[in-house]
Amino acid sequence: MTTVLPIVTKLSPRVIRILGCNPGKMTLQGTNTYILGTGKRFKSWKYPRSDVMEVMKSTTFLNDGQEIFVDGASLRVHHTPGHTTDHIILHLKEENAVFSGDCILGEGTTVFEDLYDYMKSLNHILEINPSVIYPGHGPVINAPGQKIQQYINHRNMREAQIKEVLSDTRSFITEMDIVKVLYKDTPESLYLAAAKNVNQHLLKLEKEGIVIKNDEGWKIV
């Protein structure tokens, strides 16, 4: 069961969280929106996707390493691809806090478009060594280093499990075959999302020359 979150919470003197009323299996309690600073004016920024031409007249696009200043708060942009190509985190200097978006959730794990990039991003956030993480979904993370390491360990463990399943069979098998072995305790409604994660592991292993693929599925070399 997920933690119950209030709709509006003042998390610190310069951070207010507003809970979106869109609970779901991928959004947990709902999407967290944060209001930062102590001023009265609002502005939006966005990091551009590399694979989409976006036209948003009211939005200012961000750059990796860019600093944003509002009344009472200063943030640095860190491009952290993996969950999506345009994913970023924001580092709030005054609190040594990270707004992790969908890269790190308050509860459970997340999905990603590119596992290789995602693992690099997790290690990058670990190097920042934040004191607190304000995630895009779920409650505040007060032990960031431990949480990030859990994410890294989970992916490394999952990769080892996938390699073990592949080693136990001489034939080619599909992502869903692997899911049914490794995600026995997971609701079947999440199997497709799990299969996408397994596919990302397999693509990474393929790049490393550890597995091969044909029309029937995957096989360890």
Structural overview:
With 221 residues, the protein is α+β, with helices and mostly antiparallel strands. The protein has 2 domains: 8-142, 4-Layer Sandwich (Metallo-beta-lactamase, Chain A); 152-220, Arc Repressor Mutant, subunit A (Orthogonal Bundle). Helices cover 29% and strands 24% of the residues. It is built from 4 helices and 12 strands. Strands 6-7-8-9-10 form a 5-stranded mixed beta sheet, with no helix packed on it. A 3-stranded antiparallel beta sheet has the order 1-2-3, with no helix packed on it. α1 packs antiparallel against α2 and α3 crosses α4. The longest helix has 24 residues, at 144-167. The radius of gyration is 19 Å and the shape is elongated. It starts with 7 loop residues before the first strand and ends with a strand. The relative contact order is 0.11. The model has no long low-confidence stretch (mean pLDDT 90). InterPro entries: LACTB2_WH (IPR041516), Metallo-B-lactamas (IPR001279), RibonucZ/Hydroxyglut_hydro (IPR036866), Sec-metab_biosynth-thioest (IPR050662), WH-like_DNA-bd_sf (IPR036388). Residues 30-137 form the Metallo-beta-lactamase domain. This is Metallo-beta-lactamase, putative.
